[in-house]
Amino acid sequence: GITMVKKKICMLGSFAVGKTSLIQKFVTGIFSEKYFTTIGVKIDKKTVVTDGNQVELLLWDIYGEDKFQKVESSYLRGSSGYLLVIDGTRKETLDVALQLKERVEESIGNIPFIVIINKNDLKDDWEIDLDSVRKLFVDKAIVIESSAKTGENVEKVFEIIAKKVLE
Ligand code: GDP
Ligand code: MG
Question: Whole-structure pTM over 0.90, yes or no?
Answer without folding.
Answer: yes
